[in-house]
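re: ur question from yesterday

yeah so i grabbed the chain u mentioned. its 200 aa long if i counted rite. heres the sequnce exactly as i have it in my notes:
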Amino acid sequence: MESDVMGVVNIAVPEKSSKLGFILAAVTGGIGVAISVICIPFVSPGFRRICLPYVPATTDQVEHVLQALKGRSGRLVDIGSGDGRIVVAAAKAGFQADGLELNPWLVAFSKVSALSNGVSSKTSFFKKDLWKFNLEKYNNVVIFGVEEMMEELKEKFTSELRPNSTIVACRFPIPNCKPVLTIGEGVDTVWVYETPLKDM
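ran it thru and got these structure tokens back, copy pasting raw so excuse formatting
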């Protein structure tokens, strides 16, 4: 006589294998969160009103900026200062130099760079939105901008900068304004302006 009762087979999962799976899942999740936290400051510019991506200045660009500022002194601000190389170079040239940057990792890197270059007492780095930051205390401004923001920056410079301030625009000129000097060519070009800005 055959039994109508089906046998149930229990498969034992080794406890060691279960713990290993949990550890792997936790490590993978932790790495994912860490990568997200690190990447957010670099990706988030794409979600702002005007995207200002981080593109390091070339050696030629740094030299052209310093050439544009030759004979100048006072306070300098680098808008979108990135890794701080312009600020550090300006401080070495005798300026009290500040950097504005939204990316906290780049702000931290810039502070370390200034310290290692011996100019931390002559530099400051701020995690600030440039549209909410007043420029009136500066008489030298460096901007590595994008084309879409230059018209608005022109208005900001006009309303906040004192007469005889120098603006060094890198990669893109200030629209419809006449530079007093142009240095370099291609992507390394810098345009030098003095306030009040003069129309073309």
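noticed a couple things. The chain has a mean pLDDT of 85. also The domain at 59-195 is CATH 3.40.50.150 (Rossmann fold).
anyway ttyl
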